[in-house]
Amino acid sequence: MGxxxxxxxxRRFSWMVGAFFGLLTLLGVALYxxxxxxxxxxxxxxxxxxxxxxxxxxxxxxxxxxxxxxAQIPDMRDNQDADHGVLYQLPLVVLxxxxxxxxxxxxYFFRHLVIWLTCVAxxxxxxxxxxxxxxxxxxxxxxxxxxxxxPRLFAESFYNYKDVVFxxxxxxxxxxxxxxxxRPGWGRAAVHGAVVGAAIDVRTxxxxxxGFTVGFAVLxxxxxxxxxxxLFGSFLLLVPVLAVxxxxxxxxxxxxxxxxxxxxxxxxxxxxxxxxxxxxGQEQSVxxxxxxxxxxxxxxxxxxxxxxxxxxxxAVVGRQAMRGLSTxxxxxxxxxxxxxxxxxxxxxxxxxxxxxxxYDGWRHVYFVYxxxxxxxxxxxxxxxxxxxxxxxxxxxxGGYGAVAVLALGLGHTLLRMVLDHPYQNMYxxxxxxxxxxxxxxxxxxxxxxxxxxxxxxxxxxxxxxxxATEPRTALMLHNAQLLLPPAQRARLRMVPVAQARYFLTTYxxxxxxxxxxxxxxxxxxxxxxxxxxxVLRRPTR
Length: 541
Prior knowledge:
Shape: globular
Oligomer: single chain
Largest sheet: 5 strands, mixed
Strand content: 5-15%
Helix content: 55-70%
């Protein structure tokens, strides 16, 4: 690396890696009870339960029918989320039974801990992929650290079972693709096929890995004629392994694999319901968002040091490619750069071309974020090397200034993560809070509802406390009470607005203030100047 040579010795560095991921694990253990229940959590869990019932009926029907709750669980044909893969949700439901958690408070705290541990494993995958791409384990660890120091993803690593978990699966698919292309063989092809199949069973968007596999296998065969026979031969095994894993890991496909998979895939661009979202200060249908929706959301929620280093990385890769595209792609580094570029840009282009429906910020494409960080790492690595190689005093002084600015930017991000806890999901990189709340959606997960309900019950000693919210956000209020202790949960009554003593809002689909007829504010939660939650006391009748 050229700096701190003793620190980066392999044995000592292995201890650093172990310490980093060990501390990351302990951090999650300390924090996992701080977060509320997200909008989709109960629905995702129900999808896993329905699939568990279906599997039990197929494998042990008599035993399944003897279960006390069997009749209360919907059948697969009534599952509105059947087109969502359950390779993660199904084992999680089984794990709940093994551990023996029953009350909703224990269930969701347990699930939050498990998802955090899963995301730690995903971060380790990103570390390994980054170390391979940048040719350096220390640089790989810096990329992993940048992933952790990404406020929105940090918070969602406790409750976003779909998008953040998928980051690790997709990155693993990229890693096994590199592994197979480097030295193609039957075993590596089977492993890569199984990983891609598993990723598809978590989120159907992983079909992009199939496209990457085919496209970059062709590119590898063109660049390295000597391996074409092994590449093509092992690909013949990869395809059936992929198909078998997809079907086995997704019970919805068992009865009609091709028909149901096509239906799940086409649901990308055929969202079942229309919904409004606040974007650039206007309420817009999620079916008709402009092409720049995802790039703008990515820009305003990604720490600025990463954006600056991404631009540097793109400049480095672009400079290499402009020396001759054919020459560039004939190098291993060039093909790796091309794959990372495809990873970052391909999904964004595909969503625009297919007019796929996205909403809730850019969570549907979180899986491209490691590619952004890899290119940022590429830029940082090149700048570091150029800085150490130069002998010009002015450039060296400028380098110190740039390092100081980057350090301040990262320090500010870390400070925001600490001060905003547990609402790091409200992070906007450079927008002041009042501007952000006017231009963009706020707490679309509904997490702050937990704090609102807890405040109400702590400040109202009545045996029964009637609380209301808007009909469209009733799920937020329902989810908020899931983490209450049973005694407090029994005191809460969710009622229509006209019957309520308190009105709770997280401002989803209602970004403006409420009239006095709804109630007067008695508690307001702000995060970095952004109004996140309000509790209104209803007028006495």
